[in-house]
Amino acid sequence: MPPSPLPDCPTAASITRSSKSNFALAFLALPRERRGDLTTFYAFCRVIDDIADEPGAATAEKQARLDAWRRALYGAFPGEPPLAGEVRALMAKYALRPGLLAELVEGCAMDLTPARYGTFEELLRYCYRVASVVGLASIEIFGCRCPGAPAYAVTLGYALQVTNILRDVAKDLSNGGRIYLPREDLARFGVTPEDLLQRNGGPGFPGLMAFEAERAEALYTQAAAEFPKEDRRALAPAEIMRGVYHRLLQKMRRDGFRVFERSYRLNRLEKLAIAARVLLRGR
């Protein structure tokens, strides 16, 4: 099934501006050329994710669009997705393997069916595709040279995505009934999928969330231990992300994970303060 043509062709910059994502904050730490390249890469990530999340679109249509992107990573073809040529040029510039970015496409394709993961290890495989892969590509754009940078990128990707999952429990339920919290952990705390779908989680929900938050904390600690100091300046964007999402996790913990009642975020001043501290350390 060929993908339907898109009505317009947004630019990488317009996609990034409209996203209002924490990831865009990392651009502050980059020189102009690398900032432009990261803008292109982020736009690719955003487009792929938006395909999987598009409300009302048939699953077959979403799969066709993702298949077209997967094909475009390996070479041009008539009717390929907008921005595909820019993404291939970026891949060539930084020697990014098509298979690496294809992992991200595969991760988003996993969201086309209601998410259910039996164990935390299964969930981490998903987190690798949708978050750690982003980190592995980003460190090339950042200009990292230390052999330890990939391990740091993978672990940090896990930490960021687990934090996202905890923040977005209610949002994900509304988006196709997605439940990323592992089934074995739900059972451990006596929480059923029905409890979550009723938007309360039951009496075991706070304990479940605290348990997963401890896992996220351990991943942030591991990422900090793996941080390659030789690449301190290059990794300033990643450290800004680590600071923002770790603070977000702490805010949720202090508030008792009331994710069915409110949406957690940091305000602009909080984010800028974190970015300033990271940049000062880098100097």
Structure commentary:
The chain has 283 residues and is mainly α. The chain has a single domain (21-282), classed as Farnesyl Diphosphate Synthase, CATH 1.10.600.10. The protein is 64% helix and 0% strand. It has helices at 12-19, 32-53, 59-72, 84-94, 98-109, 120-142, 149-167, 169-174, 183-188, 193-197, 205-226, 236-254, 268-282. α2 (32-53) packs antiparallel against α6 and α7 runs parallel beside α12 (236-254). The chain starts with 11 loop residues before the first helix and ends with a helix.
> What's the shape?
globular
Measured between the Cα atoms of the first and last residue, the distance is 52 Å
Portion in beta strands: under 5%
SS elements, strand count = 0
Topology-level CATH name: Farnesyl Diphosphate Synthase
* Coarse structural class: mainly alpha
Tell me the Rg in angstroms: 19 Å
Indicate the CATH architecture: Orthogonal Bundle
Helix content: 55-70%
Instruction: Show unreliable segments.
Output: 1-8
| Average pLDDT level | 91
Note the run of SSEs as H and E: HHHHHHHHHHHHH
How many discrete domains? 1
Main sheet makeup: none
